[in-house]
Write a structure and sequence with these properties.
Length: 364
Amino acid sequence: MSLRFAHRVERLRTRMDEPFLEALLITSRPNVRYLSGFTGSAGSLLIGRDFTVLLTDKRYTLRAQKEAVGFEVVVPDNPDDDILKTQLEARGLRKVGFEASNITVKTLEGWREKYNELGVEWIATNGVVEELRLVKDAEEIACIREACGIADAAFNHIQLFMQPETVEMDVAMELEFYMRRQGARRPAFETIVASGENSAMPHAETSERRFRPGDFVTLDFGAEVNGYCSDITRTVIIGKATEEQRRIYQTVLEAQLRAIEAIKPGVKGCDIDAVARQVIADAGYGDYFTHSLGHSIGLSVHDGMGFAQKSEVVLEPGMVFTVEPGIYIEGFGGVRIEDDVLVTEDGCEVLTHAPKELIEFSAD
Ligand code: ZN
Ligand code: ZN
């Protein structure tokens, strides 16, 4: 096993004392990848005090052996063979943890029924690996940095592509195509292009709507590089901004900049959220900032905890978060500005650099 993965598995083992676990079954795909390096779509890990097993199927035998070095790769000889049962039985495991957020009640009931005769007690765990994933190592940061660079380049590119009457969907497709051409494996998530009244929805779906003069257009997109994500949002105006649009935009930008300034080790996630929320409330738009300020990113776009009103996460160097305040007014439109930031020893570094001054698209 490479040092990198061995270190992660060792850290995981230190979390297996409380509650006491003989083994932990890892089923979440990004967690499987994080701990073993295995990128296949079907596989789970059984990690014990002195063993590391990757359970997969024959389609993935070779890939698993190549990627998950140091893991014992187990595949069923026949599709009906229960390789988990074989492992539990052969190793005499009784207290086995599982990832509660990743397992359905139905699956759990099935296990209880099937493995009852072995005397296995299934113990729910929550966010154990996600917590380890919060602090990134140098290699992970390099991947996120690259993903951020591609997103920045895509925003610069799309400004040349966008016209005052472009269709949302065309912009989304062009963004995704461009990011892949620049080396992204895939978009980090489904690209959002939301114009006019659609921009008033924080999680709008890209539609066939054509831009119209006076629209706010929100572009929310990211690239995936070696499994790691970037996530950026910029809002632009079609035509000239009205005074109110400008005021809303400046308020969101001010909230974002102030929150970024406050990011440093030792501060709690909820305190960063509060900084941005206060700026927006002071400007009179408090009721229109309807979501959390940001989330941790890494192997998934939502990598665990973040900047939320109840977030108790204490910032440490190596954590990477989005900072994305917004103001959404039904029937009028919305603004969101999002960057990715790395917590450093004495503050933070903004990893996305696409311009943030208000861009107004005119017909000429
Ligand atoms: Zn986003
Ligand atoms: Zn985000």
